[in-house]
Amino acid sequence: MSVGEDGTPVGGGRAGWVAEALREHEEQDERERHDHADVGRRPLPADREQQVLDRIDRARRRRPKVREERITMSHGAGGKATQTLIEAVFLDTFRNPRLEQLEDAARLDIGGARLAFTTDSYVVSPLFFPGGDIGDLAVNGTVNDLSVSGATPLYLSAGFILEEGFPVADLIRITESMQAAAAVAGVQIVTGDTKVVEKGKADGCYINTAGVGLIAQDAPELGVALARPGDAIIVSGCIGDHGVTIMLARGELDIEADLQSDTAPLNDLVRSLLAATGGVRALRDATRGGVATILNEIAKSADVGVLVREDAIPVRTEVRGASELLGIDPMYVACEGRLVAVVDETPRLLVQSGLAGRACG
Amino acid sequence: MSVGEDGTPVGGGRAGWVAEALREHEEQDERERHDHADVGRRPLPADREQQVLDRIDRARRRRPKVREERITMSHGAGGKATQTLIEAVFLDTFRNPRLEQLEDAARLDIGGARLAFTTDSYVVSPLFFPGGDIGDLAVNGTVNDLSVSGATPLYLSAGFILEEGFPVADLIRITESMQAAAAVAGVQIVTGDTKVVEKGKADGCYINTAGVGLIAQDAPELGVALARPGDAIIVSGCIGDHGVTIMLARGELDIEADLQSDTAPLNDLVRSLLAATGGVRALRDATRGGVATILNEIAKSADVGVLVREDAIPVRTEVRGASELLGIDPMYVACEGRLVAVVDETPRLLVQSGLAGRACG
């Protein structure tokens, strides 16, 4: 669980963080000054702070450019390269205000209705893994993208790209899993498409789902750009379960762990959170790129700093252990059923909303 | 053009078609009776007709079942195997009234608005071909699926599956082509997703587009199931251009022809057709499976027969020639900018709607 019994937040861009960072910085400077007794060659602490902040600011304002000539795996990993590709290619070409928000779903006004619209392709390997498969992943992922945009998920499309030779029994298993996930989330799969590509030109089965949801007329405006200093950031459960489960399920590593994907729909949790407090600024589901990537998006979009208390973020022993062996940081590992919420109040209230009791076993 | 100067329809399930078919049948029987002077061993003509019709009827009512254990290319070709896969797997699992219409787009009522929602994945090879590329194809295809459901196409999503090593310059060329097509059709690409798969696990670039459109409150109900005996069927231009262009562009055949894809948005044409006559029963865009597959869908959904005057269907000399060499029927070859309309009146009126003058060069 992300909110301790005393209501301690996981992390938060608090009003005092700058003062705190400056104080730590000054203390360190003071120590160094004491150690070396060498003040003259170093600029004043406040100036150095400003230099660093200026440098970050210049880097943020730089026009993104894809420097590689060819697509690499990192362009799909959800991190910095993905972000650059999105901004330098897709955003630059398709430029329009609805896309530019870069939220998990676009918000549209059509025929008097406020809608959320989103899409995601699923290319997970292996297709079946502990705790789920590509089918429920494809439904839950799009349900969650709609939920975190403040919409009630309603209808999904399903586009299949199948590799010649793919077992029909596996396809049936996947569609049954999709239907079960749709039933749990209360959505319907209403339109679809199937393409078959030659053997060796897909990895068994790729699925795209797009989704449409309804945003209530009185729904709060949400967006990572709305985060303000002093807000708290909440994570709804253990992080990294899905990503580590997939890495282990590939069988390339000689590690075994009693772990399963966290794939789950978040619409119920979002509904109860929005009902519990009017102070929600932004919601995200932590998928590719993990929780850390969302924190970066918050910092960049809202032009704020994010203070993370890493020891307050729940990580299962198995995830921590596997991550250490793999040399990765659980903060950057994918989840598929974890909500990240930015709220404008102490999270004590949120304990009442159903986030409490979501213990990380 | 599908409508001759005298207003002759391409084909039509006319009131008199059964009588005509029976008369032809009786004439043939009469000839055979004359040739062989052998009447006793054959059932009466009317009985035989009924037997054939009964057999077709039984086949239609049979519960579809995928007999193959593995997916084959034919499951993606848009013909009978695709139809069986859709009905036996997707329809059977996802069963709900919106999906069961099996139209090009689902019709949804959300927040007081009537919407159309559709999806399509594009896996064309080669990615660039005379007259277009995967980018404008992906935009036009979804624009057309929305248009033929009687909706005004508004917003599209774009999901990319890229193969590791894919040239960034090609991706930029594709997105620019998508943006140009979106501008022509008057739609916006408002949400997207990018995944990268390992080298050898995709064919460069696959694109999924989903689309949302608005159906006017006074829009006519449309659907192939509404076709009735006596209706005329119109095709908006030459058929098979796209499919044959792609086959030739693959370069596997030693044929050259001055031919290009017919990829184009149909929303303007649909709008003017619906404005010209209140008698439109159904609209389809002829893609995979060609015009013949649509005629089959009409026959099956509406439980009617379709009479086709093949010589009234416009086919370019190059398409006819290449089809003959390849041993395929242009009626089953893909188009990407051809409207098939079922109308409840003589098509003379439609000549005024902008369908006239669409000469097949």
Describe the secondary-structure layout:
The structure is a homodimer of 361-residue chains.
Chain A: H1 17-36, H2 45-61, H3 80-94, H4 97-100, E1 106-110, E2 113-122, E3 128-129, E4 132-133, H5 134-147, E5 151-163, H6 168-185, E6 188-197, E7 205-215, E8 232-235, H7 241-249, H8 267-276, E9 280-285, H9 290-302, H10 317-326, E10 339-343
Parallel strand pairs in A: 5-6
Antiparallel strand pairs in A: 1-2, 2-7, 3-4, 5-7, 8-10, 9-10
CA gyration radius of chain A, whole angstroms: 22 Å
Assembly state: homodimer
* CATH fold type of one domain in chain A: Phosphoribosyl-aminoimidazole Synthetase, Chain A, domain 2
Strand order of the largest sheet of chain A: 1-2-7-5-6
Fraction in helix of chain A:
25-40%
Largest interface: A-B, 79 and 79 residues
Largest sheet of chain A: 5 strands, mixed
* Chain-averaged pLDDT of chain A: 85
Give the CATH level 1 class of one domain in chain A.
Alpha Beta
Strand fraction band of chain A? Answer: 15-25%
DSSP strand tally of chain A: 10
Annotated CATH architecture of one domain in chain A: Alpha-Beta Complex
Look at the structure and name the CATH superfamily of one domain in chain A.
PurM-like C-terminal domain
Taking the alpha carbons of the first and last residues of chain A, their distance comes to 9 Å
* Structure class of chain A: alpha+beta
> How many helices of chain A?
10
Name the poorly predicted regions of chain A.
1-18, 35-43
Using the alpha-carbon principal axes, give the shape of chain A. Answer: globular
